[in-house]
Amino acid sequence: MRKLSMDELGRPSVDEFKQLDKLPVTVVLDSVRSLHNVGSVFRTSDGFAVERILLCGITGTPPHRDIEKTALGATQSVAWQYKKNIEEAIINLKQEGKKIIAIEQAEGSTMLHRFTPVLGESYALIFGNEVNGVSEEAMKLIDYCVEIPQFGTKHSFNVVISAGIVLWDFYRKLKLKSGDS
């Protein structure tokens, strides 16, 4: 077995990426405090070709060297916006026709493996603060709450790990199921 070279990977340029058919998902970061986490979510969002990232509350915004350190240029490829107020952001997303999903441990949540996104629908996935999770203000406005099953002693995953797990699951269910790759 041999590792592929960068040329063999055949990745699109930033301009080509912007023209790609995107995963119908907006990633919403609800007061994520670590700039490294923000950058890593950009990189992960690039990897799954999400529509955009919405940065809310205290979440840092590009350009910032700590974001770029982990984003590795994904702040140039992934569209993003900043909205200070999470409630206003969610109301705008609903007006765009997006189904609002908090990724959180909550009463009445649906386990990720049991949630089936619908082809043709568009989603906003809210990932919360590293300590407090998705804000109460956001939780009052969501359509669904999806929870990642966990089996160890810790009570949560890092926000970047959560984003990677959920985006892979949505990509697999929406893109690979429909024959796209």
What are the SSEs and their pairings?
Layout lengths: L5 H4 L4 H6 L3 E8 L4 H13 L2 E7 L8 H7 L2 H4 L1 E5 L2 H10 L2 E6 L6 E2 L10 E7 L7 H4 L4 E4 L11 H18 L5
Parallel strand pairs: 1-2, 1-6, 2-3, 4-6, 4-7, 5-7
InterPro entries: Alpha/beta_knot_MTases, rRNA_MeTrfase_TrmH, SpoU_MeTrfase, tRNA_m1G_MTases_N
Organism: Olivibacter jilunii
Keywords: Methyltransferase, Transferase
Number of strands: 7
Strand portion? 15-25%
Shape: globular
> Helix fraction?
25-40%
Order of helices and strands: HHEHEHHEHEEEHEH
Structural class: alpha/beta
Question: What's the gyration radius in Å?
Answer: 16 Å
Average predicted confidence as pLDDT: 96
What can you tell me about this protein's structure?
This protein is of the alpha/beta class and 181 residues long. Helices cover 36% and strands 22% of the residues. It has eight helices and seven strands, in the order H-H-E-H-E-H-H-E-H-E-E-E-H-E-H. Strands 3-2-1-6-4-7-5 form a seven-stranded parallel beta sheet, with helices on both faces. Helix 3 links the parallel strand 1 and strand 2. Helix 3 packs parallel to helix 4 and helix 3 packs parallel to helix 8. The model has no long low-confidence stretch (mean pLDDT 96). Pfam families: SpoU_methylase. This is RNA methyltransferase.
